[in-house]
Amino acid sequence: MGLALIDWVIIGLYLALSLGIGVYFSRRASKDVGEYFLSGRNLPWWLLGTSMVATTFASDTPLAITEYVRNEGIWRNWFWWNAALGGLLSIFLFSRLWVRAGVLTDNELTELRYSGRPAAILRGFKAVYFFTIYNFVVMGWVIQAMATILQVTLGIPREMQWAAIILCICIALAYSTLAGFWGVVITDLVQFSLAMGSSIILAICCLGAVGGITGLKERLAQVGGTEAKMLFLPPFDTTPSSFFDSPFFTFLVFVLMMWWASHWADGGGYIIQRMLSAKTEGHALLGTLWFNLANHALRPWPWIIVALVTMVTFPNVEPERSKEAYPLAINAFLPAGLKGLMIASLLGAFMSTIDTHVNWGSSYFINDIYKRFLVKSATERHYVLVSRLASVGIMAAAGVVAARLDSITKAWEFLAPMAAGIGPVLILRWFWWRVNAWSEISALLTSVIINIFLVTRGVRIQHKFIIIVPLSLVIWIAVTLLTRPEPKEKLVEFYKRVRPGGFWRPIQKELPGLEKGVLGWGFLVEWLSGVALIYGATFGIGKLIFQEYGQGLILLGIATLGAMVISYKLAVREGLR
């Protein structure tokens, strides 16, 4: 591509700023593991919510969305749009419960909720699984995406491309290991602002090259087979023989099953980490609400626009290489200066995800493996030092995984079903006293084993879910009823601390006068209002972008109504004024 001097200056200034933040916060992060992993539980809602958005705004995301839109259509984004339904559970239910639990990692809740050796085994197993397999694959596809971006935009050979990646990794490691979670959230704020602004600029420049939205729609109409790719919902297939292989069936699996069945059903690891870092329950709730709104309604549309433009400007890019269309658009449509800003923003998106997974993964290693099973009595400075060393090891392993990945969307869809049946257990462990450690163990093992078997058979993701989830439900419920419940004193201790409500009658009898739990009609109203807000805003903005103003205004009106109900409910809730 040949970057101008101004481009290199912008990139250099951004990298220097990131490193400077790490140095600035290093002393504060070295105080103890609470500061290093949770910023002393003192983050305001706007900072922790923006950090959530930045973390999921990785260098892989625009490339993966480009793959989806070019190969299948806008509707395919329901693979991740469905997560808002579970995200709203996190907002109105679990954000408060996680803050009350007061744990350092979500795995620590295992031994708060369960007892004995099964609880310890479960905590260690989950920590190892998510600290290694899950974490390495996610970081691997993010590194691989950044490698693709540098290769295409800079036109450099692969060996030099990896040198640039190693430089970015070293800088991300430097500020995340020096400053801990403080470095992560502060740089996330900068990175999100830069990445969001740059993606909007790229979308505007791309539209300018094809005559605006009107010109884009006219040129797309001239390309065969694009009508279905412009739909927000997939077409309904009425042919019985092909229904289970149709886009509509895939959509149904995403919106009716995927969001409550997976391991992020009660928050998800690094989202929970940010909830736990909040000042109060109210800050955790508002931060998670801001994250879901920005993540689903604001973030994707610039990428979708760019993907649609590439369909008419780069029609000959093969489907298996469609992720390269996004960096090709950077090359083709951005002038000097803006190219540097765009690359800096993608470096920022890359590092915001890498630093989160490094910090989050090392928190699992230290709190749930090293401190729990290996070295139980050491100084806080010792644990912080080992955390920093673990971060380096995580990064090295992720680099090895990255070298073996090809398609980002295939990696996404390999990982999602790995814990596809554990979601109901994660939800019910808060609200049903009968759930025990064996419930989680059986659900997780069932999902992992069946998914690995189905991968070897080439089964598609929507079919994996309809196989894994029912089998997992049957197995873990049977195991629950065939094994002993947790000791009453353990359940009383947990309920008294978290106060979730629900199906705890035998335990509630032991705690007369304890305040009402979080379940009830009020929660249902908040959740439905959240659905109206998130999806009304998401598709209202999309309709306005594509000049369908009537539908867009109606959808935004629905979103506004949802926001008004939520605002009223939060205003009258004690502690959130």
How would the blueprint of this fold be written?
Blueprint: H1 5-29, H2 33-38, H3 45-56, H4 60-71, H5 78-81, H6 83-101, H7 109-113, H8 116-154, H9 158-209, H10 212-221, H11 247-261, H12 269-276, H13 281-298, H14 300-313, H15 325-333, H16 338-374, H17 380-402, H18 408-415, H19 423-431, H20 437-456, H21 461-482, H22 488-498, H23 505-508, H24 521-545, H25 549-572
Helix pairs in contact: 1-9, 1-16, 3-9, 3-12, 3-13, 3-16, 4-14, 6-11, 6-13, 6-24, 8-9, 8-15, 8-16, 8-17, 8-18, 9-10, 9-14, 9-16, 9-17, 11-21, 12-13, 13-24, 14-15, 16-17, 20-21, 24-25
Task: Give the tags.
single chain, 577 residues, mainly alpha, Sodium/glucose cotransporter, 25 helices, globular
Task: Please describe what this structure looks like.
The chain is built from 25 helices and no strands. The mean pLDDT is 85. It is 75% helix and 0% strand. The protein has a single domain, classed as Sodium/glucose cotransporter, CATH 1.20.1730. It is an all-alpha fold and 577 residues long. The N and C termini lie far apart (52 Å).
Element order, helices and strands? Answer: HHHHHHHHHHHHHHHHHHHHHHHHH
Low-confidence stretches: none
Rounded radius of gyration (Å): 23 Å
Major β-sheet annotation: none
Average pLDDT works out at: 85
Secondary-structure-based class equals mainly alpha
Identify the CATH architecture. Answer: Up-down Bundle
Q: Given this structure, which CATH class is correct? A: Mainly Alpha
| CATH level-3 fold name | Sodium/glucose cotransporter
Strand content: under 5%
Q: Compute the number of strand runs.
A: 0
Total domain count: 1
The helicity comes to over 70%
Distance, first to last CA: 52 Å
The number of distinct helices, counting runs of at least 4 residues, comes to 25
What form results from the Cα inertia axes? Answer: globular
